[in-house]
Amino acid sequence: MRAVGDGALAPGRRPRYDPAACRVTANTAGLAFEGIEPPVWEYRIGGYRVLERWLAARAGHVLTLREIEDFRRAAAALGFTLEVQFQVERVWPEVEEGGKVEVFPAGKAP
Questions:
Q1: pLDDT at residue 108, rounded to an integer
Q2: pTM, full prediction
Q3: What is the C-alpha separation between 62 and 37, in angstroms, rounded?
Q4: Structural domain of residue 51, as residue ranges?
Q5: Sign for the pseudo-dihedral over CA of 91, 92, 94, 100
Q6: Residues 52-84 pLDDT 10s
Q7: Cβ neighbours of residue 5 closer than 8 Å, sequence gap 6 or more
Q8: What whole-number distance in Å separates Cα of residue 23 and Cα of residue 20?
C-alpha cells in the first residue's frame, strides 16, 4: 500500500473510495492511499467503516508521516483480520460438529 499527495484533511469532507483502482482519496489536494482492497475499505465495526472513521476523526488538520503510517498499518491489520475470519468460517462447520480442527500444521505452532 502506498500513500501519495498532501496530508491536509478538510473538515466535513468524506474520503472517496474507487473500488476499481483500490484507492482512497482523502482530500482535494490529492492525498490518496492506494492498494486498499474493497473488503478492507468496507470492513465495519459497530456499523461504521473503520478506515473512513479513522480519517474522519482527523479531519481539519494535516496528517503527519506517523499518522499516514498508522493508517497504512490499520488497513493491513484489517486485511489480516479478514484472512483470519475467512479461515474461521472455513473450519467452523467441522468445529460445530465436534470434529478436531488442526489450527497449526504439525510442528509449526507459534
A1: 67
A2: 0.80
A3: 25
A4: 2-96
A5: positive
A6: 999 999 988 888 889 999 999 999 999 999 999
A7: 26, 27, 29, 30, 31, 32
A8: 8
